[in-house]
Amino acid sequence: xxxxxxxxxxxxxxxxxxxxxxxxxxxxxxxxxxxxxxxxxxxxxxxxxxxxxxxxxxxxxxxxxxxxxxxxxxxxxxxxxxxxxxxxxxxxxxxxxxxxxxxxxxxxxxxxxxxxxxxxxxxxxxxxxxxxxxxxxx
Length: 138
Hints:
- There is one protein chain.
- Helices cover 40% and strands 20% of the residues.
- Helix 3 (43-49) packs across helix 4 (59-66).
- The protein is α+β, with helices and mostly antiparallel strands.
């Protein structure tokens, strides 16, 4: 059964011109893009989206970073989408990410790690609906 997952290309990766390269890596890995937006998250958007991390030492800087510039949000679909996308993006810390993963290729550091990927099917559903209505999903 096909699953859906959410990808966010984060502000620094957008600013550094990596949108096309990242989407090409995603496409070459067999994902189908079901929806795509470029948008600017507000501080409130970022606080709500990352509320699971509220109270952690990196929360405030994560919120500020995510609201610092445009992002690209995508809904991706394929068999085992969540697990396969997590493998494709690599470790949160690009220094520990496998060679060839998106974070290893395009991230600066753990705080500016190029992309977000849903960590479970349940979270993917919530995250997708944070950014997209049902009528926007193809």
